[in-house]
Amino acid sequence: MKSSILYYILSSSVILYYGFGINRLLTIKTDYKTYIKSLVKALLITASTTSLSWCLIRFVLSALDIIEFYPVLTSLFFIVISIAVHAFIKTAPIDITEDYAVPFIIILISLNEGAGIVSSLVISLSCIFSFYLLGVIIFALRRRFRLFGQEQGFKSITYLLISIAIIFIALFSWNASWFTIGLNQ
Q1: What string of H, E and C letters represents the secondary structure of the chain?
Q2: pTM, whole model, 2 decimals?
Q3: How many whole angstroms separate alpha carbon 64 and alpha carbon 99?
């Protein structure tokens, strides 16, 4: 269980590996209180939608042999739960396209990769934590670049993208098994 959490937060982060939500992370301009509210909202939406969708897939769709319809039904669950959670935790005006695209993609990935309800929940919650952890890192990098000031020819977004590329290399360079392909034969 611990290895799955660390795997999906760090080394196989959906955000870092597939690139989902990087454009969203680069454009977030909120304070820390709103960011924490957004994290809690994403965790509630992701956990409840993942568990309800998994139960629907396991007990209803697989019994009827129509598993192909799970993305449509998951999106319906997702919209209803998102609106309900947003009614209790208001961070900004509701915008399904911007704020909820990343959690929905994470839910679909966790349902595809999870073997059971617990593993699907672990995957989805770890991916949400990964997204918001990378957001904190980007906040720190933005503050750091503001301290340096502007150099000629480079904008702060360029520094930010270069820093994200370095983070990608640092997290994925440990898997250098392709260096020893010829030695194993």
Answers
A1: CHHHHHHHHHHCCHHHHHCCCHHHHHHCCCCHHHHHHHHHHHHHHHHHHHHHHHHHHHHHHHHHCCHHHHHHHHHHHHHHHHHHHHHHCCCCCCCHHHHCHHHHHHHHHHHHHCCCHHHHHHHHHHHHHHHHHHHHHHHHHHHHHHHHCCCCCCCHHHHHHHHHHHHHHHHHCCCCHHHHCCCCC
A2: 0.78
A3: 33
Q: What token pair was written down for 183?
A: 């030695």
Distance CA 62, CA 58 (A): 6
At 2-34, the pLDDT tens digits run: 777 777 776 566 666 666 677 767 667 777 788
Spatial CA neighbour of 84 closest among 49, 113, 33: 49
Beta-carbon contacts of residue 38 (< 8 Å; ≥ 6 apart): 30, 91, 99, 132
Q: How far is CA 39 from CA 23, 82, 155, in A?
A: 17, 13, 29
